Amino acid sequence: MEFNTARTAWRNQRNRNQHITQKLQNCQRHGINLQNDKVLVEYWRDKLILRYEKWKNKTKNERQIIINLRHQIFVLQNNPLVNPLNMAALTDVTLSLAPMIAQIPMYFGQEPPTEYYNKFMQIFQYGNTLGVVGFNDAVKTRMLSSRLAERFIPPNPFQNNAGNQVNTPALFLGWLEENIEK
After folding, report:
1. 3 compared with 174, residue with greater pLDDT
2. Which of 137, 132, 107 is nearest to 121 (CA)?
3. What are the φ and ψ backbone dihedral angles of 109, each rounded to 5 degrees?
4. pTM reported for the whole predicted model
């Protein structure tokens, strides 16, 4: 009986040792998996840090651009532009257009309004090439209305029959065509 008991004890110990060995091997495998996971986590952490740094620099640059633009706006609002010597002003445009406009006779209905209007539009195209910001539709409308005579002299305020302010060349043409019909 002692022999069987010793044999059973030996088998039980061997089974426990095998069980412990299996657990140890499982832990080793699990440790290797953890190391692999650790490597993956470190890889993605590094990628995430790079993305964050890139985003941070990008937003920092964008914020700096906005700050610079705000500063430029502030400077422009508080310091009127000095007209550089090589930049044309509205007076330069009107002086250069005056001889051409003087060649067009005063309008008193001698030709269709569209022909008269087209003559001015050709002259205004030249004025547009000078690139002066102040040479806008209101200035062009004043130039057009300055060459009207007799019954075509615009009223003050200069409005069409619908009560709209005539302040563009297109509205001027419409007003002139309305008054031709009267």
Report:
1. 174
2. 137
3. 100, 15
4. 0.49
Helical axes 137-146 vs 90-102, angle rounded to 10° = 30
In angstroms, the CA 132 to CA 124 distance is 12
CA distance 19 to 45: 38
Look up residue 79 and give its two tokens. 């310091």
Q: How many whole angstroms separate alpha carbon 122 and alpha carbon 100?
A: 10
The encoded tokens of residue 82 equal 């000095």
- pLDDT tens-digit map of 7-58: 788 888 888 888 888 888 888 888 777 787 888 888 888 999 999 999 988 8
| 3 state SS for the chain | CHHHHHHHHHHHHHHHHHHHHHHHHHHHHHHHHHHHHHHHHHHHHHHHHHHHHHHHHHHHHHHHHHHHHHHHHHHHHHCCCCCCCCCCCHHHHHHHHHHHHHCCCCECCCCCHHHHHHHHHHHHHHHHHCCCCCCCHHHHHHHHHHCECHHHCCCCCCECCCCCECCCHHHHHHHHHHHHHC
Is the per-residue pLDDT at 1 higher than 60?
Answer: no
Instruction: Report the distance separating Cα 160 and Cα 34, nearest Å.
Output: 84
Cα separation, 134 vs 140, in Å, equals: 10
